[in-house]
Amino acid sequence: MLTCCISGKTSMRSIIFANYIARDTRRLGATMDVEQSNVRFLNNLVLNLWDCGGQDAFMETFFTSQKDVLFSNVEVLIFVFDVQSSDVQKDIEKYQSCIETGIMKYSPDAMIFCLVHKMDLIPKAQREMLFSKRKEELEHLSKPLKISCYATSIWDETLYNAWSKIMSLLIPNVGQLKLKLKKFADHINADEVLLFEKATFLVVAHHMRKEHNDANRFEKISNIIKQFKLSCNKMQSFFRSIEVRNSSFAAYIELFTANMYIMVVMSDPQVCSAAVQLNINNAKRYFKDTDQSGTQ
Asked: How far, CA to CA in Å, does 278 sit from each of 121, 156, 186, 188?
């Protein structure tokens, strides 16, 4: 991850990969030089995260003596912009330098994601217009490379949604997973079926057969389960499954493969828990090959 300012890269990395909650990131300091960490994702897929300091002195070093190290064999570049930066033009110039002298030269096939961060600081009525303008400018500067832009904040669901989309694009066989989820959901008459990555609880794939009025439910579920897992860890217990039921629906979350949890939502009151559990267990073999083949 790169940026040109103190834009919140370390905070978002901590929330997604280290189970921080937003208020706990206030005690994190600014990144000095480069912090490197490896995150194992879906077994054999490893994310090599380079959290690069945004201060001018370090950015200058990155684009001179360390340029070949940072930009060689890059699969994904995530560039974070502070939406309230005091020098937007300077940020744009740094990004353009990163693209032209780094990515185009050393990793022209890399996927590029631009996160316009701290959007919570912008009045709600102005956010869409401001983001659209910034997105259009970044797409123009990035040509002929294609980029994906997301508006994000650590205080709402946008950060989780952006990272879920990024992670989904890193999975070679995500199309197969979605197809299998559809078949599974149709077979058991489920309202919705989701696959979460085991460590981060980011959504890997999902299929919905019944419309839901809460567009932010994935992020809410992820936060709840991650906090529950932390509580289990404190008690030296391992979270494996949970069932939530009321008069309207039943939701089942269970460890599904070595690398994923599954969530099944049912609204049919005639379907008993044992039947759902049996279907989930029978489906594990069906998904196991897809899980392993996508990580080699």
From this structure: 47, 36, 16, 11
Q: 107 versus 30: which is more confidently predicted?
A: 107
Determine the Cα–Cα distance for residues 256 and 240; give it in Å rounded to an integer: 9
Q: Which of 290, 259, 284, 289 is nearest to 43 (CA)?
A: 259
Among 152, 172, 154, smallest CA distance to 162 is for 152
> One-letter amino acid identity for 148?
S
pLDDT score of 36: 65
Report the Cα–Cα distance between both ends of the chain, in Å, rounded: 24
| β-bridge mates for residue 208, sequence order | 192
Written as one string, the DSSP assignment of 191-246 is SEEEEEETTT--EEEEEESS--S-TTHHHHHHHHHHHHHHHHHHTT----EEEEE-
HSE-CB for 65 with a 13 A CA cutoff: 5
Helices (H) and strands (E) in the chain, counts: 10, 11
Residue 85 has pLDDT above 70, yes or no: yes
Residue with tokens 């044992």: 274
Query: What are the beta bridge partners of residue 197?
Result: 260
